[in-house]
Amino acid sequence: MSTAPLIPARFFFRFAAPCLHVEERWGRGGLQLGTEYRLADFAELEGRGTFADVRVGWSAAGLVVNVRVEGKRQRPWCRESRLEESDGLQLWIDTRDTHSIHRAGRFCHRFVFLPCGGGRDLELPFADQLLVDRARENAKPVRPEMLSARSEKRVNGYLLEAFIPAAALTGYDPAEYPRLGFTYAVVDRELGEQTFSVGNELPYAADPSLWGTLELVGGK
Question: CA nearest 34: which of 68, 62, 69, 71?
């Protein structure tokens, strides 16, 4: 009888992925990223399938993230009042890419983007900042209106486009610090959870040493 390993395979690697520069600016219609911005799928190391295509791009103005979720039969469950329990995207970003600490500091951020759940009819996409669990120091507060989200319904899922402006990222300076500590979780009650680095077998939500790295490539 086969048993699951006590320590997931991704724990033994430190992941670094290129994050390409984006020339276009985020606008009212959002910003869709091409396939060249797609992040590698490291879950294959553990024989896990994926249901989300995650793409990230950067510019001096901030970070753009696209998520395409496929394989759903149910509508996403999203509530503005219950962010951590909702279907959607959560991001953890360390603008100093420090992997030697186990508790987040002021350069560590956590954001959530939902494809719906906002507005009176719960139909509007929504974005907000969350606190990093067990942080010794929190990043500066970010009001929801500083963040941007756009979504499209698809037959078997959704497309979610997100923008985090530089002003919402303490210490964001691509010229001086072209590496970001980074991980994500695409959470879905129907399909499960997909992460960039380790999964929920380990406390990645609270421990920056378990995050991967984005290498900011290109730009002038």
Answer: 68
Looking at residue 38, what DSSP letter applies?
Answer: B
C-alpha 136/C-alpha 33 separation (Å) is 35
d(CA 55, CA 205): 20
> CATH code for 31-217?
2.60.40.1190
User: Structure tokens of 136?
Assistant: 């010794």
Output the CA torsion sign for 194, 195, 199, 203: negative
For residues 139 and 195, what is the distance between their CA atoms, to the nearest angstrom? Answer: 22
Report which DSSP code applies to 30. Answer: B
Say whether 19 sits in a helix, a strand or coil. Answer: strand
Q: Which residue has the tokens 């395979």?
A: 9
Task: Work out the number of other CB atoms within 10 angstroms of the CB of residue 76.
Answer: 22
Output the average pLDDT for the chain. 91
Q: Output the CA–CA distances (angstroms, integers) from residue 121 to 14, 79, 151, 193, in the order listed.
A: 42, 11, 15, 26
Residue 105 vs residues 129, 134, 156, 169, 198: alpha-carbon distances, Å: 15, 10, 39, 13, 20
Question: pLDDT tens across 44-67, in order?
Answer: 654 567 899 999 999 999 999 999
Total-model pTM: 0.91
